[in-house]
């Protein structure tokens, strides 16, 4: 019986390979998108990184460029790198007006039998808010390879009433091996009994047979500002969590506060799924502010492996402890600078912010207790001059 998960995983990989072999012309993806030419550099805060989007997530059909202003934005001859043989409409490199909203591009496979639509948007830098009540969630219906499942995700509205998908979780990876699980029973799900209105509930779960085949036995409930790369979920789980979004405020953050409830699971296990006696699971809440461009001008994205240790971090905050409680209780943490924060870099949106919640503090290492449950609501980030 112990060999069944490994056999199942081999079948999965073999079937995925067969799909690719039998449908070589079914690929119709955008691999990269970029704005070319010095005439357009003045439209961007950081031209060396903001003018190009590489390594696009295969699970996403939205491409977003951040610009200084939409009012003065000229027509843009956007260029694309596509999967071999694919074509795109409007034409690759043709000038388009993005000042009045997104433009939809259609990519057609080499044999003309497959199509995929992408929404490309140029928007002004704007983190929606620094107050999060987790009222806005929606169901995602996923069809990836031969996996079909549904999970919840969260979003915010900006000051113009547009939806901003700044939140991510490990739900998408969990769904790959648990398609029979209801969305409400995923590690991260909404709950109607918040401090006010709805809240987010994170619960550590058994990971499922597919994850167990690669020795990932638990799945901590989590929610973080960033994105999730489903392609890395099974091969490099830590790197699948892409932490942080543009910090679009000219003033540095100093404090995070909110409300929580927490109850640890009964039995703590290590990464080998062995019970650790006399150890109780803990929840975790932390935030980091980090430079989003390195010394060579390359984009910086943190992941689950370096989000607390990266040399690009300039300030971090972490809740010292979250004692178990069944009543809504306040939490608070303060940012401590670990490197100088440059005012000009703040004004040019040169920092990213990651805010992370997890039902198991060591969940990234696949250690914790099944059943550990963290509820979070009414989170507010305070700025230095407030």
SSE layout and pairing:
Layout: H1 4-22, E1 30-34, H2 47-50, E2 52-53, E3 62-67, E4 76-77, E5 79-82, E6 87-89, E7 95-96, E8 103-108, E9 115-124, E10 131-132, E11 137-144, E12 147-154, E13 156-157, E14 163-164, E15 167-168, H3 171-176, E16 188-191, E17 199-203, E18 205-206, H4 209-212, E19 218-219, E20 222-228, H5 237-240, E21 241-243, E22 245-246, E23 253-263, E24 268-269, E25 284-291, E26 302-303, E27 313-318, E28 325-334, E29 336-337, H6 343-347, E30 351-358, E31 368-369, E32 373-383
Parallel strand pairs: 3-9
Antiparallel strand pairs: 1-2, 1-5, 4-7, 6-8, 8-9, 10-32, 11-12, 13-14, 15-20, 16-17, 17-32, 18-19, 20-21, 20-30, 21-26, 22-30, 23-28, 23-32, 24-31, 25-27, 25-30, 27-29
Strand content: 35-45%
Which class do the helix and strand fractions yield?
mainly beta
The shape is globular
The average pLDDT is 89
What is the strand tally? 32
Given as residue ranges, the uncertain stretches (5+ residues, pLDDT < 50) are 1-24
- Tally of contiguous helical segments: 6
The biggest beta sheet is recorded as: 9 strands, antiparallel
Give the helix level as a range of percent: 10-25%
Q: Radius of gyration, Cα only, in angstroms? A: 22 Å
What is the assembly state of the chains in this entry?
A: single chain
Termini gap: 60 Å
């Amino acid at each position: 019986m112990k060999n069944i998960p490994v056999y199942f995983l081999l079948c999965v990989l073999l079937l995925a390979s067969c799909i690719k072999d039998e449908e070589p012309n079914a690929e119709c993806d955008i691999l990269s998108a970029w704005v070319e030419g010095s005439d357009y550099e003045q439209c961007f805060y950081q031209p060396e990184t903001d003018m190009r989007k590489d390594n696009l997530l295969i699970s996403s059909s939205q491409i977003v460029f951040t610009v200084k202003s939409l009012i003065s934005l000229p027509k843009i001859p956007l260029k694309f790198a596509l999967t071999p043989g694919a074509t795109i409409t409007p034409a690759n490199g043709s000038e388009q007006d993005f000042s009045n909203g997104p433009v939809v591009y259609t990519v057609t496979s080499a044999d003309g039998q497959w199509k995929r639509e992408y929404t490309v948007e140029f928007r002004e830098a704007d983190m929606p808010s620094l107050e999060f009540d987790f009222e806005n969630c929606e169901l995602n219906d996923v069809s990836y390879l031969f996996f079909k499942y549904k999970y919840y995700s969260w979003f915010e509205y900006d000051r113009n009433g547009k939806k901003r998908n700044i939140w991510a979780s490990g739900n998408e990876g969990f769904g790959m091996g648990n398609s029979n699980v209801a969305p409400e029973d995923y590690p991260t799900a909404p709950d109607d009994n918040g401090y006010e209105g709805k809240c987010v509930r994170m619960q550590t779960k058994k990971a499922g047979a597919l994850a167990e085949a690669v020795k990932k036995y638990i799945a901590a409930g989590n929610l973080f500002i960033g994105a999730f790369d489903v392609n890395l979920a099974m091969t490099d789980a830590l790197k699948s969590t892409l932490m942080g979004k543009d910090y679009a405020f000219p003033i540095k953050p100093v404090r995070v506060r909110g409300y929580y409830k927490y109850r640890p699971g009964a039995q703590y296990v290590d990464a080998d799924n062995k019970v650790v006696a006399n150890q109780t699971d803990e929840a975790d809440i932390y935030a980091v502010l980090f430079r989003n461009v390195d010394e060579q001008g390359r984009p910086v994205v943190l992941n689950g492996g370096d989000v607390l240790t990266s040399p690009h971090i300039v300030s971090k905050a972490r809740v010292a402890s979250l004692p178990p409680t069944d009543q809504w209780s306040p939490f608070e943490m303060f940012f401590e600078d670990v490197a100088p924060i440059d005012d000009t870099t703040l004004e040019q949106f040169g920092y990213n912010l990651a805010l992370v919640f997890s039902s198991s503090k060591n969940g990234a290492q696949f250690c914790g207790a099944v059943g550990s449950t963290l509820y979070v609501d009414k989170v507010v980030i305070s700025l230095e001059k407030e």
